Every structure is written in C-alpha cells, then in structure tokens.
Amino acid sequence: xxxxxxxxxxxxxxxxxxxxxxxxxxxxxxxxxxxxxxxxxxxxxxxxxxxxxxxxxxxxxxxxxxxxxxxxxxxxxxxxxxxxxxxxxxxxxxxxxxxxxxxxxxxxxxxxxxxxxxxxxxxxxxxxxxxxxxxxxxxxxxxxxxxxxxxxxxxxxxxxxxxxxxxxxxxxxxxxxxxxxxxxxxxxxxxxxxxxxxxxxxxxxxxxxxxxxxxxxxxxxxxxxxxxxxxxxxxxxxxxxxxxxxxxxxxxxxxxxxxxxxxxxxxxxxxxxxxxxxxxxxxxxxxxxxxxxxxxxxxxxxxxxxxxxxxxxxxxxxxxxxxxxxxxxxxxxxxxxxxxxxxxxxxxxxxxxxxxxxxxxxxxxxxxxxxxxxxxxxxxxxxxxxxxxxxxxxxxxxxxxxxxxxxxxxxxxxxxxxxxxxxxxxxxxxxxxxxxxxxxxxxxxxxxxxxxxxxxxxxxxxxxxxxxxxxxxxxxxxxxxxxxxxxxxxxxxxxxxxxxxxxxxxxxxxxxxxxxxxxxxxxxxxxxxxxxxxxxxxxxxxxxxxxxxxxxxxxxxxxxxxxxxxxxxxxxxxxxxxxxxxxxxxxxxxxxxxxxxxxxxxxxxxxxxxxxxxxxxxxxxxxx
Length: 624
Known about the structure:
Blueprint: H1 2-16, E1 23-28, E2 32-33, E3 38-46, E4 51-55, E5 64-68, E6 72-74, E7 84-87, E8 90-93, E9 96-105, E10 112-122, E11 124-126, E12 135-145, H2 161-167, H3 175-189, E13 194-195, H4 201-218, H5 229-242, H6 247-275, H7 288-305, H8 318-350, H9 354-357, H10 362-385, H11 398-425, H12 428-451, H13 458-479, E14 509-511, H14 514-522, E15 526-532, H15 537-547, H16 550-558, E16 561-567, H17 573-581, E17 589-593, E18 600-601, H18 608-616
C-alpha cells in the first residue's frame, strides 16, 4: 500500500513540477492610429532565475527588437537602463527587461485592420559565463489604421485645444496643439497597451506538459510499439497467474525502465542545448549505426519469440529462479526495449511540442521527457493499480504460443523495414556487410539457446555464453565500421529556381529548393510543401493515403497549387534548417504557402478532410 501511495505522489509531483521558462510578451502602444500618428512596439522578456541577459551597449548584436510592416516607418530602438552595470562593455538585465521600438504611420497608409510581425532576439547567460545559443521569439500584433482626419471647418472666433480634442476631426495649427490633440484622442479611445493574444507563461508551460503526457500515451498505438505490447501483457498475465500481488511491482519496475530511458534521452537534449547545437528530431534515423543497433535488438527479440533461445544465466535453475530475479529484470528491460522501439515514432506525435520543450530550462526539459515516459507507461500503471483489469484479457493457453510466434514474424517484418532504410543510407558493399553481421548474430544466438540450458553442465553453459559474445564482438569489429568507401555523402537540397520533377513522387510533384519556393511565391503562386523520409512511417502513410491519391492531386490542381517535395532520408542541413525555422523538429513536415499570408502548418498525420478544408479557404485559384 505504501508503494502505491508513493507511486501516486511521484506521478503528481512530475505533473505539478514546473519552472517558468523564458517567455516573451509583445504589445503595441495604440490599437488604432491615423496616418502620421506615432507609437511604439514593446517586447518584455521574463528571464529564469538562473540566467541573465548580458549586453554590450556599444554592440547589442544578440539582443534587439525588430518589426516589419509596409505601412509603418520604424525608428531606432534603444536599450533601457540596465539592472546592473559590470563595465562599460557589459550590462546585465534580470529578472525581466522591456525593449521598445518607435514607429510612425506613413502618410499614404491605407485604412483597415492590420497585423505587424515582430521579433525579439536574445541570448541568455549563466553565472558561470556559459551562454545559451541565441534565440528568436516571433509574434504578431493587431492594430487598425483609421481614415485620415478631415480638414478643419471654418469657425468664428478662436478655437481652443480642448475643442479640437473634443471634435476629433480638426487638425491642430501647430506641433504643440497636435501633440495634445493626439494624446487626448489616445486617452479617450485607446487602451495604454494591447498585449498580443497569447496564454500566460504558466498556462503555456502546463499545456505543453499535458501534450507531452498525451503524446507518450499515444505512442503505445504506433506501428513502432504496438507489436511488442502484447508481449509485455502476456508476461504480466503469466505473473498474475502465479501471484497477483506481484503485478503492481512488475508494472512499476517496467515504468522505472521507461522513465530512466526517457531521462537519459532528456539528458542528451539538455547537453545539446547547453552546447548550443541544433537538434532535429528523427535525425537519429539517418545514422546507420543507430539503425543497425536497433535492428539487431529487434532481430534478437524476434528469434527469442520464435523459440530459438531463452534468456537464462549459466547454472541457473530456470524452473525455480526465472520467476523471481529473472522476472523483475525482464520487466525492467522490457520498459527499456519498449522505449527503444518508441523513439522512432516520437517525433510525429510530439513534433509541435518538442520545439517548445527545447526552449525550456534544463529542469523543465527533464520533466517534459519524463511526462512522455509516464504517458507511455500509463496503461501498465492502470493495470498495476487495478489488477482486476486483467480479467478482460483472455486466459493463457495454446493461443499464447501461437500469438508469441506470430509476434516474432511481426518483429522480423520490422527488421526488414530497417534493412531497407540501411540500404538507402549506405553503399551496396556496406549493406552486404550488414547482412553478414546479421547472419553471425543469428548464429551466435542459436549457439546460446542450444547449449545454455540448465540440464547441461555449468562449464558448457559458461563456454556457450562467452563464445557467442566474442563472436558478436568479432562481427561488429570486422563488418560494421564505416570505412572511406562506405562514407555517406551528406546530401544538400539542390540550389536553383528551375522546376525539376521528383522521380519518387507522382507526376506533378517537383523537387523543393528554397530558391524555387521564393520564386513561386514572388510570382503569386500557392505552394504546398511536403518534406518526408523513407524511414518515416507516418511520412509514407501521409503520401500513400492522402497526398499522392488521385482525388487530392486533382483538388490541388483545381486550386492551382504548385506541389514541392523535399527528401530528408539522408542528412540535409538545408532541409533541417527549413524545418526548424518553422518551429518543427522533424518529419513529416507539411505546409501550405499563400503569397502575403502566414504559412499554414499541418499536423504530422494528415487526412483528406484536413487538406480539403484548407483548400476551400483559398480565395482564388493560383496559376501553375
């Protein structure tokens, strides 16, 4: 009971724990302006307690506010008074700072509702002197440009400034009266500040933490994880048949394996953040070593499910000891294996939240990833708290053996898909090396399964435990190093404005380049961009079931949409930069670009209905 209560407290602490990360709030001094009016844009940066904004006042290269709008003329921004002066070349700001940017409405500005794009660039530093990489926060502010004031009507006798301010239609005769009249109008009609419509920092942090938990929960039904879940459930069934009181402990140990794995992953991202490097989620799939390592693990598990071997230790009586020490360790490593299978599918379900997480403090990044793990393990936690839920699962029988073997073939299919990816990432000669390594790995596991049995002598068991390990080590050393002739050529998105047909897509799709994209938008054409990869299952599903279908292709054509496609199968810094600039961290990446408007970003999983709803909002048909 104490264990259950402690687990509940731990879960609540993980959900409740959060620190306010650096956040930016944009505002505009006036909501409605006339041609000639002056105003200012403000950006307030809330700084975490462990960091400061360090600035050289003579050269604020990493701390500035800028904005862009054709109807506004912007002046020069100035740094506010520092919180602390270290020297004439180093000012410090904390715990918050506000930058202002003055502007004037141009005399020929057209009336109507407008929005201005803003950007605050900042670079926070720690007490140790180490600094985060420069970050940019973008925002949009709404305002309205009113019709110019009408010319003053002739009046008898002198006109007071108060009368001018009251009428709101007459133009003051001199600069002083003009300033007073504008101030009076502002005080009468305009709030002092119009904050950008965005949630409070705490609410935004909580929203993405909830996304993290739900994303982890959804991972259980992805193609990467779903095949292995029944395996773990069967293990729990067996444990329950022997001692139902152990079910809770097993699921908690499984959860511990999951949380430790996600904690290690969080540490990697924290290290990347501190080192100032950029990380693209899913790019681990572009690494042949990652693919081969994961493929080897899946292959070994598949052989185990097919009865080639069982994991035992030399001299251990499996009948008496496998259900105790072996059972708990199996639950722990089952959680780790589930994590390894999940990370290939994490990006598609958390792509919108991960960029936000990478801007959090180190502590919150850890909480973010632990909540993913908590959501991932949550179905098993429910079984641990409510063992009666096991009653809905069929009782053990011969069907379990058949099902286990069927799952072995499912895992072999996953091995096949990983082999295809490895072939795309390496040369043909290296691919043959990988195949031979897999053959040696299979033979080594067969040796282990055939001779490490409790009925054989301890010497035999030890020999055939060590021999397969040495055999696998020899195969890794001999066949897996990437030599010069195997080196992967880093692919870059092509450069140019010409339209080149994409040979990996149906007719009508063209190879994406940033230059071609800019040229098409400058010509007033609507562009749909799809960036995917051969190792991305959701990319392939989106293209096969939605984007490449005849009906959606016809609807794109009817709206005059130009279709561009980028291939992220191999490393491509150009595509990675494009994705991260849109605050995404991996593929699938899909966006619709309409000239003069903000891009419409799609979620990672597409549907035909989703595409149609967006296309219906296009006010005109572009010209291909």
